[in-house]
């Protein structure tokens, strides 16, 4: 049964399709679930997946992904507000904020929430890296300023990014659970 990935972000869908190829097909669905005000990616993703599943009807499961960039020297900012900050401040100016700091460590985190008629499950992934001046044409969002092992995520192929990224790790946990569930 196809999984409906509820997101407006094509990059997330490309990564999920690449990872889940041969396991399950992924359809992108634009439904604007309520993004609750919360510091917790898990809470945002869980409530979003539940709401989307109930609202959309049919028995096809849904997947929601709530992600953020957490900059150590900025107290974890922009974190759960990463989407808003990308749209307002932008990636380049966030880099300039971090460039003033000695400590340029940051983490990407994501929570995938899967909802079907039997409930909701969450899968988390994170990756630690270093913020750098923008490089690379691939990926999306903050990828050009996030360096891992000498490469920015925008310099990686989808497959390379999935092998080390927050989303790749969450997709790995999801795929393992999905293969073993009984229905
Ligand atoms: P949906 O909510 O519709 O899924 P979104 O892009 O708003 O799409 P998020 O709220 O989860 O998704 O994303 C938070 C921000 O973090 C947003 O600016 C993304 O571009 C960025 N982001 C998420 N995952 C990323 C990744 O793997 N690499 C770079 N930036 C990422
Ligand atoms: Na969002």
UniProtKB/TrEMBL annotation:
Cofactor names: Mg(2+)
Entries under InterPro entries matching the protein: dITP/XTP_pyrophosphatase, ITPase-like_fam, RdgB/HAM1
Stored SUPFAM superfamilies: ITPase-like
Entry annotated with the keyword Nucleotide-binding: yes
Gene3D superfamilies xrefs: 3.90.950.10
Enzyme class label: hydrolase
Active site: 66
Catalytically driven reaction(s): ITP + H2O = IMP + diphosphate + H(+); dITP + H2O = dIMP + diphosphate + H(+); XTP + H2O = XMP + diphosphate + H(+)
Cofactor note: Binds 1 Mg(2+) ion per subunit.
EC nos: 3.6.1.66
Binding locations of substrate: 7-12, 67, 140-143, 161, 166-167
Residues annotated as binding Mg(2+): 35, 66
Keyword Nucleotide-binding attributed: yes
CDD domains in UniProt: HAM1
Pfam families xrefs: Ham1p_like (PF01725)
A single GO molecular function term of this UniProt record: ITP diphosphatase activity
GO biological process: nucleotide metabolic process; purine nucleoside triphosphate catabolic process
Similarity comment: Belongs to the HAM1 NTPase family.
Quaternary structure, from the entry: Homodimer.
Protein name: dITP/XTP pyrophosphatase
Organism expressing this protein natively: Natrinema salifodinae
């Amino acid at each position: 049964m196809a999984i409906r990935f509820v997101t407006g972000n094509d990059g997330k869908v490309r990564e999920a399709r690449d990872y889940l190829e041969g396991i399950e097909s992924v359809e992108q669905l634009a439904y604007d679930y309520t993004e609750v005000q919360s510091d917790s990616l898990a809470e945002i993703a869980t409530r979003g997946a539940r709401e989307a599943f109930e609202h959309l009807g049919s028995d096809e499961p849904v997947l929601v992904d709530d992600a953020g960039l957490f900059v150590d020297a900025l107290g974890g900012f922009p974190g759960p507000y990463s989407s808003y900050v990308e749209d307002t401040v932008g990636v380049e100016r966030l880099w300039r904020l971090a460039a003033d700091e000695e400590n340029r460590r940051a983490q990407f985190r994501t929570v995938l929430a899967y909802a079907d008629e039997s409930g909701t499950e969450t899968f988390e992934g994170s990756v630690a890296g270093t913020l750098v001046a923008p490089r690379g044409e691939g990926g999306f969002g903050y990828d050009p300023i996030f360096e891992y092992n000498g490469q920015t995520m925008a310099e990686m192929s989808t497959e390379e990014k999935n092998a080390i990224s927050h989303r790749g790790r969450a997709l790995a946990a999801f795929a393992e659970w999905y293969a073993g569930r009984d229905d």
